[in-house]
Amino acid sequence: PLDTDNIQSDILVGQQKNKELFFFFKVNDAATFKAKLASDIIPLITTTTEVLSEDTQPVTAVNLAFSNTGLVALGVDDELGDPDFVAGQFSEATSVGDDPSTWNPAFAGTNIHGVFLLASDTVDNLNAELASIQSILGSSVTELYSLQGAARPGDEEGHEHFGFMDGISQPAITGFTTPVHPGQIPRLFLLGEDGDPNLSARPGWAKDGAFLVFRQLQQLVPEFNQFLQENAVDQDTLTPEQGSDLLGARMVGRWKSGAPVFLSPTHDDPVLAADPDRNNDFTYLIADALPDPGTENHFNQTNCPFGAHIRKVHPRGDLSDGADEQLHFIIRSSIPYGPEVTSAETASATSTIDRGLAFVAYQASIGNGFVFLQNVWINNNGFPFGKVDPTPGVDPIIGTGIDALFGLTGGPQNISGMDPANPALDIVRPETYVVSRGGEYFFSPSLSGLDHIAAA
Ligand code: N7H
């Protein structure tokens, strides 16, 4: 069994709170910082065991992760065996599909040394916890940036800003997740455990940590909604509103409730969406409906476009080798940030306030996880490969079409398979509605790993 007393809480369980503050800092005085880390900060760090029961959950959960520059500044110069982590996210901006000019200056470079993730029920609690951390650390750290995340209000709780339920499909954790629901495939996402792709390269203290990819992803919500309105699909049989809803659902691969379009292609189904034994119980293989078994017609996009967001990032059954698919799993622990859309923004179909997703993903290899997903699947208009349509398009939700390696600079994208009445039709998406404001790669150590860092 996993040593859940030694693993930070956000990795396997998530922070489970409606408010989360990300506090990005730089270390000014390594010796003082490490002394305070050992004496006062490590005791504040929330473990997996603590969040498993409501009785032991702290008022405010505290997690802590370091960038590569941060570890070096603290005198920890072991190779962790992950080249993307060492390079930092900014140096990879264009290769993961970003336009660096949209990056928040705080992330542009390798200045950030670490991040505290604080989670609680109220912003007041977060601010109180932050104040106490800052008084412990004093001038040994400087704040470089912070981002306040919050669940959306009322019925939108759990939904991201475009309106879709998030957090439905999460891989199970081997030996930890119970019960494992149908459609969940267990894996381990921790360094030094089974399934670590670079096991022999890891220093001992890295065991039971994981790489944390942070991204501030701005969402242009009124612009996205206008696009859905103007491109409503299946206009022969659906009302304009139904056609817009169907287009949005096919872009994501799930309806706003979370029901997969593959299982419920014509209408939303909130009961299906809420049933954990059914809402992930599918692959994209349609073996029965085959005119010509054994060929690429094995797969069609009547129920779900080849390029739908959730199919791009988790092509259930689309690859010939299932092990390949699992290699690229990530654990997501994101939260929305920014206020609700105002009536003035809706009326003008123009975002004037920054809102989006504070994206957090954990994995044992950034190259197999986040970077691979961005490069090889999300921003590759040929993926999934070998379909009747050779260019399913970039990911309609987050694909930008930017790829420095292939000289691709973004701009309008063709997204295909959106209209079930005419799957071959390409719709032009004039701009991306998810704009990266940048981020960083971090390592979230185990508690004993934090002890090691404090003693370095
Ligand atoms: Fe995605 N969205 O609202 O459209 N995502 N995502 N994502 N995402 C998922 O299954 C969204 C982003 C994954 O196992 C759902 O929990 C938005 C990045 C993966 O079937 C919805 C943004 C990356 C899954 C969204 C965004 C991923 C997934 C369905 C940015 C990786 C699980 C709910 C603003 C690099 C797929 C659910 C599976 C699901 C949305 C970003 C990956 C609704 C708005 C950057 C692996």
Give a verbal description of the structure:
The protein is built from 14 helices and 13 strands. It is an alpha+beta fold and about 450 residues long. The strands form 4 sheets. Strands 5, 6, 7, 8 and 13 form a 5-stranded antiparallel β-sheet that branches. A 4-stranded antiparallel β-sheet has the order 2-3-1-4. A two-stranded antiparallel ribbon has the order 9-10. The chain is globular. About 45% of the residues are buried. Mean pLDDT is about 95; it is low at about 295. The structure holds delta-meso nitroheme.
What's the SSE blueprint?
Elements (H helix, E strand, L loop, with lengths): L8 H4 L6 E9 L2 H12 L6 H5 L8 E6 L1 H6 L9 H5 L26 E7 L2 H15 L3 E10 L59 E10 L1 H10 L9 H13 L17 H4 L35 H5 L8 H6 L3 E2 L2 E3 L5 H6 L7 E8 L6 H9 L23 E2 L4 E2 L3 E4 L9 E4 L4 E11 L2 H9 L1
Antiparallel strand pairs: 1-3, 1-4, 2-3, 5-8, 5-13, 6-8, 7-8, 9-10, 11-12
Helix pairs in contact: 2-14, 7-8
The structure holds delta-meso nitroheme (N7H).
Task: Please tag this protein with its features.
456 residues, alpha+beta, five-stranded antiparallel β-sheet, 17% strand, binds delta-meso nitroheme
